[in-house]
Amino acid sequence: MSSLLHYGLDRHWLDEFEKHSQDAVLARVVRVDRGGFDAATENGIARCTGGAVCTGDWVALDGESFRLIAILPRRTAVERASAGTTSDTQVLAANVDTVVVTVASDTALDLGRVERYITLAWGSGAVPVLAITKTDSGSVAEEVLSSAAPGVTVCSTSAVSDGGIDSLAAHLHGTVALIGPSGSGKSTLGNALLGGAVLATGATREGDSKGRHTTVHRELVPIPERELVLLDTPGLRSVGVQGSEDAVASAFSDIDELAAWCRFADCAHEREPGCAVLAAVDAGELTDRRLSNYRKLLRENAWATSRHDARARSEKLREYKQISKSLRQKYAVDDRGR
Ligand SMILES: Nc1nc2c(ncn2[C@@H]2O[C@H](COP(=O)(O)OP(=O)(O)OP(=O)(O)O)[C@@H](O)[C@H]2O)c(=O)[nH]1
Ligand SMILES: [Mg+2]
Ligand SMILES: [Zn+2]
């Protein structure tokens, strides 16, 4: 498995790599640990040192020492706010094209947590997909998940009966990161996609079916047969979202769209007259639970200071939305005046 093509190499990375010295070696980080990292090169996996790399990064290495020369600019990054501080972020996976969020059918459904994961996924720049796992041992309605993640494809899968794996795969593209709580079946799903027991999996606890944090490293594994590269991750204990209101707006696009119809441009959807969001709650079209989680995630975002350039993008988007909203309101006023 030495060809970098199996690890997702494309023209873009070759062009980025050309900017470095001729003695440099192109590689993709497959695993990071305390002492350094493993990277796939055209001649196999190399043990490398130096730099704050992340699984999924494309890097230029010194051809002799395998020391890091440079991290090629990331196209996407799955980032969460580090526990404790709000200004620090941790990159969980780099250069991911699809983020699969796993939701297990054998544990109690926590929609707030799903919304967090989906916000994290949208914030990465990759496309989120929701995978319901273990459908042989429980059930979660796809419609319920869809309402918590508008615009996101939802697939039901079972690794035991092989159900839904190919239909899920049809929605996957490029580098696919698996994220979700411990025990939700990420590695098992990864193995089902791989067609063999490559990734370690572990039994969940008796009683509450919670995971035991079996996967401890983020790991990149090619699936040449499906033209995918899999990035398995350990279950997260906490999911802090940060960085862009943009991601929250995408994860809550239903509320975002409603908000454009509120009477006041700066409506906080608390108790303002003419609030279209509260009207939707009254009409039973939006749950109180979802609205309060939306507020909570927005607050978290406001606290976090972002050093990400997504910031500039989201400001542009906000500005644009503000303009289109005031235009809409102007016309609404004109209509009433007539
Ligand atoms: N019945 C059934 N069990 C499953 C299925 N998928 C996973 N499991 C079981 O769920 C348990 C946890 O699966 P893992 O794949 O290790 O979960 P994980 O999300 O990778 O967990 P961490 O690595 O701890 O984050 C294992 O005992 C699996 O055998 C499924 O489709 N059906
Ligand atoms: Mg695992
Ligand atoms: Zn409002």
Could you characterize what this model shows?
The protein is of the alpha/beta class. It folds into three domains: about 70 residues, OB fold (Dihydrolipoamide Acetyltransferase, E2P) (Beta Barrel), CATH 2.40.50; about 160 residues, P-loop containing nucleotide triphosphate hydrolases (Rossmann fold, 3-Layer(aba) Sandwich), CATH 3.40.50.300; about 90 residues, Orthogonal Bundle (Ribonucleotide Reductase Protein R1, domain 1). The strands form three sheets. The protein has a six-stranded mixed β-sheet with strand order 10-9-8-11-13-12, sandwiched between helices. A five-stranded antiparallel β-sheet has the order 3-2-1-4-5, covered by helices on one side. It is globular, with a radius of gyration of 22 Å. It starts with 10 loop residues before the first helix and ends with a helix. It binds guanosine-5'-triphosphate, magnesium ion and zinc ion. Zinc ion binds next to helix 8.
The first-level CATH class name of the largest domain: Alpha Beta
Please tell me what the overall shape is: globular
Largest sheet: 6 strands, mixed
Cα distance spanning the termini: 71 Å
Helix vs. strand class: alpha/beta
- Compute the CA-based radius of gyration: 22 Å
Q: Helical amount among residues, as a percent range?
A: 25-40%
* Distinct ligands: guanosine-5'-triphosphate, magnesium ion, zinc ion
Average pLDDT reading? 89
Strand-residue proportion: 15-25%
Uncertain runs are: none
Overall number of domains: 3
User: Helix count, per DSSP?
Assistant: 10
The strand count comes to 13
The CATH architecture of the largest domain can be given as 3-Layer(aba) Sandwich
- CATH homologous superfamily grouping of the largest domain: P-loop containing nucleotide triphosphate hydrolases
